[in-house]
Amino acid sequence: MEMMNEDPGALIPELALLGAAVLGLLAGSWLPRRRQWLIAALAGLAFVAGIVATALAYTRPAETVFGSYAIDPTTNATRLIVLVATLLAVGASVDAARGQRRETEYWVLLLLGALGSVLMAGATDLLLLFAAFLLASIPLYALVGWSATSTGTEGAMKYYLSGAFAGVTMITGVTLLNAAGRGTAYVPLRENLTAAAAGGRSMPALAAVGLVAVLAGLAFKAGAVPAQFWVPDVSDGAPAPVAGIVTTIPKIGALVAVYRLLTQAIPEHAIDWPLIVAILAAASMSLGNLAAFLQTSVQRLLGYSAISQVGYVLMAAAVAARTPQAGPALLLYLAAYAITNLGAFAVAAAVTTPEGPARTVNDYRGLARRRPVLAGALVVCLLGLVGTPPTAVFLGKLAVFTAAVDGGMAWLTVLAIVNTVASLFYYLRWIAPLFTTPAPTAGPSENHGLRRRWASGVAVVAALTTLIIGVGAQALLGLLTTVP
Amino acid sequence: MLSLIVFLPAAVAVVLAPLPARLPGHVFVGAWIAAALADLALIVTAWVRLPAAGVGPGGFAFEVRLPWIPSVGISYHLGVDGLSLPLLAMTAVLFLACGVFALRETRRVKPFVLFFLALQTVSLGLFAALDLILFFLFFDLSIVFMYFVIAGWGHAERARSAALKFFLYTFLGSLALLLGFILLFLAATPHTFDIVELAAANPLAAGGPYAALTLLAIGVGLAVKTPTVPFHTWLPPAHTEAPATGSAILAGVLLKMGTYGFVRIAMPLLPTSWRQYALVVLVVGAVSVVYGALVALAQANLKRMVAYTSINHMGYVLVGIGAAGLVAAGDAQARTLATTGALVQMVSHGLITGALFLLAGVLYDRGRTYELDSYSGLAARTPRFAALFAVAAFASLGLPGFSGFIAEFQIFTGSLPAAPIPVAIAVTGILVTAALFLVALQRLFLGPLRLPDAPGTPRAFTDLRAAELVAIAPLLALATLIGLAPRFLLELVEPAAAAVNTLVAR
């Protein structure tokens, strides 16, 4: 047996998040409420430290530490995406969380959730993957219920119950794969499955059921079919920043985990997983879009849009073994989606009506006149989610579509195109009211003591970032194309 | 130089954006007119200097090529030749005319001007783009900005649904186009989105189903934008509900993006498949010609009528470029004639239909309706309006002496040997257009005076004002100039058309 690499120095970004979470929890217990913003600063510092550490280690050769955690370009790219996205989420959350009774808990839960997402992406062992799944899930259940409103609690309950069911399904899948492949680590699993298939001793049904069950668990985190039922309720019930977090952060880790699992552990000739994933992709994008059509609540609309967006990412996963373009395409799409989606949720967090946060598309009437910059940011983010150039998601879509066609799944690309056009319909239902005159009841709307400067700032930063990535994509693509 | 031409309007928009919207509208419109004038001057300079640039057939002048996303073969690549320069000039002229016309705009002038400046940049950029992704970028953004113009300054609540239909329909077309581009990209080795490299490499020279599917995707994408029958249903409502300037740009410039795409992308990059399916293109064109003319004849709404004649006119373009692909039948000279005619038709239609839509806007401004039945005997009350409208109508129906005649004559002469029967059917379209314009002229201007007295028509029914006259008359003067002395245009277009035909015939 080779020497196990146990270099904790390779895990600085993860340790920074963990350290900040522990320290924050301890310090937060003693800090008075008006000083709890220090924990937010600590969390922000941890994310920045993680980004710096990742950047410094970016060119290091790929390695596996502690026998089950790969630190390769894929993990590094995921770390960057998750950390930058969570940093944006911190900014979008400040207005909502500051001065609240449980402010410390908010930041600690966010830190732990982000950590779980990163760990899922790097795991090369089914058991570690499951542990990371739990770490990415449990803090976020609590975060959804954090506001303690009735809709938030209902959302948390639904999230928790779906999550518990998904967890049980996933651990069953791990057991079945272990039985079929005699191992939980990806490398031996692949070897054993290949050998079994070659020797005619394979149990394809067993392995296939196991794989589908594991994928179902990851689909829960990603908000994809067949475990998407929680997404609209949670994203509608939770405060906007929290909704943005749960539909974005865990998705990144889960989808990279799907990619890693499929390419590293499951030989394509043993199980026809490209077809399975393609069906999941097709179902996600179509169901999400169809359900989003008639929504009037903006957060519910974004929830369904999140389901459909996962479908596009899964297209890249479906052709993961067939074309070298799949990996970079998947990461590029995730990076673009994370920033754009958080930008849209930040706008939802920033816009208020006299009665409180704006919830329906009608609450956005006349926003272009009241707050032109914020309305502009929203238009950029929503058209970005559609995939209009020159935004980041356009390049993501271009990369994903190219990969899918190259991987022999042109039919999936055609379906994605039809879905993209359909999605334009409901995004426009949100954009159109911005330019109408406000409803008479709305009145002089911006003076209800809720300026929400942080959320507005994050929305603008996100919109600008998606444009900058769209125009200057070469730099980002350079980071991502190192992925094998 | 080309980058300056393309991005000058956008730069002006960026400068205007921080100004408060309370400023008088003339500040913004004035800046727009100045930008359009400067842009036109630059394009005229480019036109004059083009022979000195010493570009051979098939080459590009004023080329700019910078790496954009080199790892996936995307570059910022601009250049002009005889195909694109006339369209650039036409675009600049039309935007200038719309700027002058918009001096009378009073509703939210600042965003209105910003959207038009943005539209001008994407339109010029599209005609100068030599990279498929850059082309797609401008193609898509033209849809986005036009959506906001129609929805924001259209005629009523109906404008929103018309704008939505426009956006959804043409966006579907643009994504089909994107699929075609991806197929082209994957077919080339090394993978690239560069139009010049793809034309030289001719990756799909072997034809076959893959090439046919690529042409289908690109063809559908462009056909929606053009639009041809049966993809035209978005056009009439969009035109009817759009403001006059929006209609003029939509018909004059945005429709050309579709036909220009055929000449710039579909023909040189997919020559084998183009030859294979050229008859389909020609027949679709002929059907559009006849169908557009007949439906236009049945319209009682002036703007819808002009919108349907656009379908008819774009049909001629397709007939011309379809004939260019029928290599076996016609000789090279005839095919070049047909392609040249198609290109002249694009310029001619831009000028004439732009003028017609602005005139329709004048009519709406006075009478608050486009219904032909509401008006009668206007010639006595508004002689200048009547004269200009008559000139535009005669130019549009292809009377000799106007640019439309030069274009249609070349198209028919060039394509008749290649496909006599469809072309003969298409010629009847001219008869129908002539009939419908004469009927419209008769209903509007002759007979006893009758004006709409519906609510919302408080003003006196005045003749053309100075700004309107200054906006519309030069468009028709240019159309007449091309009709009487076309050499300056043909000398530019013919070599480029011949180069495209060489690429198609290889």
Describe the overall structure.
The complex is a heterodimer of chains A (484) and B (506). Chain A has 20 helices and four strands. Chain A is mainly α. Chain A has a domain at 272-484. Chain A has a two-stranded antiparallel sheet. A two-stranded antiparallel ribbon of chain A has the order 3-4. In chain A, a hairpin with a 3-residue loop joins β1 and β2 (69-71). In chain A, α9 (230-237) crosses α13 and α13 runs antiparallel to α18 (410-434). Mean pLDDT of chain A is 89; it is low at 442-449. With 506 residues, chain B is mainly alpha-helical. Chain B has one domain (2-505). Chain B has 19 helices and two strands. In chain B, strands 1-2 form a two-stranded antiparallel sheet. In chain B, α4 (109-128) packs antiparallel against α5 (132-153), α10 packs antiparallel against α13 and α11 runs parallel beside α17. The longest helix of chain B has 36 residues, at 332-367. Chain B is globular. Chains A and B meet through α17, α18 and α20 of A and β1, α5 and α6 of B.
Task: Classify the secondary structure makeup of chain B into a structural class.
Answer: mainly alpha
Which blocks of ≥5 consecutive residues of chain A have pLDDT under 50? Answer: 442-449
Q: Considering DSSP H and I runs of 4 or more, what fraction of the residues of chain A is helical?
A: over 70%
What do the pLDDT scores of chain B average to?
Answer: 91
Q: Biggest sheet of chain A: strands side by side, in what order?
A: 1-2
Number of strands of chain B: 2
Q: Which parts of chain B are unreliable, with pLDDT below 50 for 5 consecutive residues or more? A: none
The share of residues in extended strands of chain B comes to: under 5%
Find the structural class of chain A using helix and strand composition.
mainly alpha
Q: Compute the number of helices of chain B.
A: 19
The best one-word shape of chain B is: globular
Profile the largest sheet of chain A. Answer: 2 strands, antiparallel
With strands numbered from the N-terminus, the spatial order across the biggest sheet of chain B is 1-2
The quaternary structure here is: heterodimer
Radius of gyration of chain B: 22 Å
Terminal Cα span of chain A: 26 Å
Number of domains in the coordinates of chain B? 1
